[in-house]
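S1.2 Input.
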Amino acid sequence: MNKYISFIPKLITSIIIVLSLYIIAFMLLVDIGSVQFQSYKNTLLLTNKNIEKIIIESGSNSFHGINSSLIEKHFKKKTINLAEFAGVPLKLKLYRLSNAIKKGDVIILPLEYRYYLGDTTIDMFYDGIFFGYSHYFKALPFKEKIIFILNTPIKSTIKATIKIINKKYIKDYILAKFKNIQPNGIKEQGKLYVADNGDFDFKEPLAEKDDLKIPCQEYIFTKSIIDKNNIINPIFKDNIELLKNIKNKTGAEFVFTYPVVAGADDCYNFDNKNGKEFKNFLSSIKKYITNNGFKFIGNYQDSFFDKSHTMDTWFHVLPEARDKRTKMLIHTLEKENIISPIKK
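S1.3 Output.
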């Protein structure tokens, strides 16, 4: 019996040692892998952290659907389009923001509806955390980093290890870390697709994705709302509490609005199946956000366009619709006294 009792502390100690080594190895992999994948948008954010600015943060709907240059020109205030990919959990976006915003900054959140309904982390993001999405991990507080590491699928860590070894990223990491020699192309990362303010650098329409095979309403509302008594996901409620803390800490202002959508009439046809639930959802999110002390501006019609303006998904619009939507957003920001143009 004493033999088994003495084994337990040894087992616990061994588990702690293994977990500690794994956590250290994970963080090192992120450091090594991220050398080749510096985010242009993240650099924009950090280099402008000490000035008053307007920030757009959301998924790709805002990357394609907002023209930050028009906003900057109108309000004469630095404007950055941080929006990247809706597969990035909102919590990580908020922590990334919290390190680079201050009083006087206005953060506009045209969140895709998935953030309210079920903000789950997908494998593609876990795979990218060692590379192109590493800045989100690095911005997390230590406790949140540990939680994230323990939730990351082991297969993502293994894939990253293999890629780093095969691509010989360790050599580039050593040169960058100890000799300050940056790999070729590191300053160009993102420039191929991102314009100066972080907007999508439109060259020609993107090829249509399979997303368009899913009915617009089902796609934008992530299929259907099953639990009618608990429409807003608990994850989003936790994120709102985090956002309150960030607002109190930084003094920045956060403003919610609707995502851009381009498609057939069924996108917001509430006579369709689940239409009543979707309509209730739209009013519920606005009520929940305003009840928690944040502004929710505009209406979904301001950001809705017919199918001729669709690019490759229901959430991506062509430049004409993007600019029209941006001008409407500028008008609403002024009407609601959120931002006023700087007079010369």
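S1.4 Remarks. Strands lie at 53-56, 78-81, 106-109, 253-256, 261-263, 295-296, 304-306.
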